[in-house]
């Protein structure tokens, strides 16, 4: 059975544009999974410590036959392949962050995985790219993505143009 999953991508180290582009290619190579579409790339200010570079963010839609835990394992493998080092500094700089935002309509709360991703509904750098690729999304809680995106300002987001991306 195919499940639509949404993945948040973020990077602010070691050429973030390159990291995100490579991650999108890698997402398309996950077994039993198809990369359906992805948002444009956005630049955003970091949530955590201010003494770090801006992030490049995007959201991707996948159709997968993998269960949520197998998909999470694939995402973590891609992060490691691209040099992700998990440190003690929460919201610190990273080469790549792949967050499993939504997995169908499932709600999962375990030590290993929380779906919907915590903070999803409060983060403009996730809401706006997600809205770009699925504007009619309604969360299991009943909230409409369109309303949430409208109520979260995008003035701290910058859409990266093709010239920047292909530099």
Relevant terms:
single chain; 167 residues; alpha+beta; Alpha-Beta Plaits; six-stranded antiparallel β-sheet; globular
Estimate percent helicity: 25-40%
CATH architecture: 2-Layer Sandwich
Query: How many domains make up the 3D coordinates?
Result: 1
End-to-end distance: 40 Å
Which stretches of 5+ consecutive residues score pLDDT under 50?
none
Order of helices and strands: EHEEEHEEEHHEH
Number of helices: 5
Strand content: 25-35%
Largest sheet: 6 strands, antiparallel
CATH class category: Alpha Beta
Q: What can you see in these coordinates?
A:
There is one protein chain. This protein has one domain: Alpha-Beta Plaits (2-Layer Sandwich). The chain is globular and about 40 Å long. With 167 residues, the protein is α+β, with helices and mostly antiparallel strands. Helix content is 28%, strand content 25%. Helix 3 packs across helix 4. The strands form 2 sheets. Strands 1, 2, 3, 4, 5 and 8 form a 6-stranded antiparallel sheet that branches.
């Amino acid at each position: 059975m195919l499940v639509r999953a949404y993945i948040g991508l973020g990077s602010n180290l070691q050429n973030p544009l390159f990291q995100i582009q490579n991650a999108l290619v890698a997402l398309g190579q996950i077994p039993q999974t198809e990369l359906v579409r992805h948002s444009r790339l956005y630049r955003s200010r970091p949530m955590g410590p201010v003494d770090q570079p801006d992030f490049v963010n995007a959201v991707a839609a996948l159709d997968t036959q993998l269960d949520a835990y197998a998909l999470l394992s694939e995402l973590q493998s891609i992060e490691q392949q691209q040099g992700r080092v998990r440190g003690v500094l929460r919201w610190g700089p990273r080469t790549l962050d792949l967050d499993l935002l939504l997995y169908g309509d499932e709600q999962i709360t375990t030590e290993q995985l929380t779906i919907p991703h915590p903070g999803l509904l409060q983060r403009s750098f996730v809401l706006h790219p997600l809205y770009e690729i699925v504007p009619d999304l309604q969360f299991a809680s009943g909230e409409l993505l369109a309303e949430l995106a409208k109520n979260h300002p995008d003035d701290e987001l910058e859409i990266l143009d093709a010239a920047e991306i292909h530099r």
